[in-house]
Predict the structure of Microsomal glutathione S-transferase 3.
Amino acid sequence: MSDSLVPHGFGYVGAALLSTVFLLLGQTQVVSSKRRKSGIAYPQMYADKAQEKESKDALIFNCAQRAHQNTLEYIPAVYVTTIIAGLQYPVISASVCAGWVVSRIFYTRGYITGDPKKRVSVVYGLASVGLLGNLFLSTYIAGGWVMQNLKL
């Protein structure tokens, strides 16, 4: 690492992380659109079973809402592992994060068909493996910092 506080190439990490914001904004727009079409009023988070049986739009709203919620569940892990791994491996880390964002687009598009099985694709699987790669890199890097500071 150079004298700079930020390693060369870390801008890619910032760009990849920024792309997650656009992903979330896109998913929010999809959920809002599907909510309007289904007639599910706020503050109801999901359509209930009776509403789902009455209307395919209610089922699709639930699928859109779940895709967005699942993305929100993963975002903290994506941010932490992308930043930590990006401190030593910025291009790899940013690529994994960007791949995860692309996979989430496929995931959401498949989910909102109304058939939840269509949420999973090869792209989704590869991005999941990549996310595990960032987790392993982050663990390796953080372990190194701990060992270095403990002087073990």
Remarks:
- The domain at 10-150 is CATH 1.20.120.550 (Four Helix Bundle (Hemerythrin (Met), subunit A)).
- DSSP finds five helices and no strands in the chain.
- The chain has one domain: 10-150.
- The two ends are 22 Å apart (CA to CA).
